[in-house]
Specification:
The protein is of the alpha+beta class. The protein is about 20% helix and about 25% strand. It is built from 7 helices and 19 strands. The chain binds 2-oxoglutaric acid and fe (ii) ion.
Length: about 325
């Protein structure tokens, strides 16, 4: 399908090479974004099932990345910094308000809206000893789906990229929902999956969590299996992570069999795109419409990304 290149002032939007969804955007200056460019970005996002790749020929500063994040929604705190947002309060810190915690991070020079992902120390950029699992594969997932209102958009900005490995895969769950066999759609339309919060996508147990005896006992939040995305009208499969997932109300063996069937469908190669990074790029995706994963990284090489996300909304079930 040949889509024309669209122009919004100096910004160009073209189809994402090698993908059946998504768009590539060039020529944007984040600190001088025009109203027409904002509209162009949001139109491209709707046409592209929620995946946008921005090319820059320089690395962004923090304000530029926050300005880009704000196009998609209200900036959300980075996971793991504020109690209740990917982090449990430590004993004795339950009384801290969000403002207290933000002030404490700022006092240490830490931006609470910015996450660092990588195997380097964020300011010196020296390669650090990192758990082996960091370098392995990160399973298909949507971000923080184990809470009631998961962040809607995530943005990654590539600062240091290894020569090999570390590609980020994306899988269109709008295409997966469109291609879902009708009998399977009918079967899962009223069902919910409980999204486990025990493990991060790299297989590491989250701080303060214990391994549950069975997925039925896992701690997490249940969401409808097919959701409607209000901003585009699309339906999307919403599976979260395969590890420790559980279809509520079913015996464990039936839940496992149904999840295996759903995951085999949802991750078919024709719904996937694997992004090979270059320094300076920003990739933005809508977690309501897209699964993502990361391929293993060569342990001897540095990889460093900045990451932001936007505030979430309750999941709207498909009708
Ligand atoms: O490092 C990556 O490529 C992806 C990491 C990830 O899953 C995320 O940032 O949400
Ligand atoms: Fe993720």
């Amino acid at each position: 399908m040949d889509q024309p290149i669209k122009k919004y002032d100096d910004m160009l939007v073209s189809p994402l090479g090698g993908a059946r969804f998504g768009a590539e955007i060039t020529g944007l200056k984040p600190s001088e974004m025009t109203a027409a460019q904002r509209t162009g970005i949001l139109d491209a996002y709707k046409d592209g099932h929620g995946l946008l790749c921005f090319q820059f020929n320089h690395m962004l500063d923090v304000e530029e990345l926050h300005a880009m994040t704000a196009v998609f929604g209200e900036n959300e705190f980075a996971p793991g910094l504020i109690n209740g947002i990917g982090k449990k309060a430590l004993p004795g810190e339950e009384h801290l308000t969000v403002d207290d915690q933000v002030a404490a991070h700022r006092a240490k020079g830490r931006d609470p809206y910015l996450a660092y992902i990588g195997n380097v120390e964020p300011t010196t950029l020296q390669v650090e000893k990192t758990p082996d699992k960091f370098f392995g594969e990160w399973e298909w997932h949507t971000d923080m789906s184990y809470i009631p209102t998961p962040p809607t958009f995530s943005l990654l900005h590539a600062r240091i990229i290894p020569d090999d490995g570390g590609d980020t895969g994306f899988c269109s769950q709008v295409m997966a929902a469109k291609g879902l066999p009708e009998d399977l759609r009918r079967k899962v339309l009223s069902l919910k999956i409980k999204h486990d919060s025990t493990y991060a996508s790299n297989g590491i147990i989250r701080p303060g969590m214990e391994v549950p005896a069975s997925p039925i006992d896992a701690i997490g939040h249940a969401h409808p299996i097919i959701r409607t995305v209000p901003s585009t009208g699309d339906e999307a499969l919403y599976l979260g992570r395969r590890t420790n997932a559980y279809v509520e109300g079913l015996p464990l063996d039936e839940s496992e069999a149904l999840l295996d069937e759903l995951w085999a469908h949802a991750t078919k190669p024709e719904f996937q795109y694997h992004h090979k990074w270059s320094v300076g790029q920003v990739v933005a995706w809508d977690n309501r419409m897209m699964l993502h994963m990361r391929s293993p990284v060569d342990t001897s090489q540095a990889r460093f990304m900045w990451r932001t996300q936007t505030k979430g909304e309750g999941v709207v079930p498909a009708a």
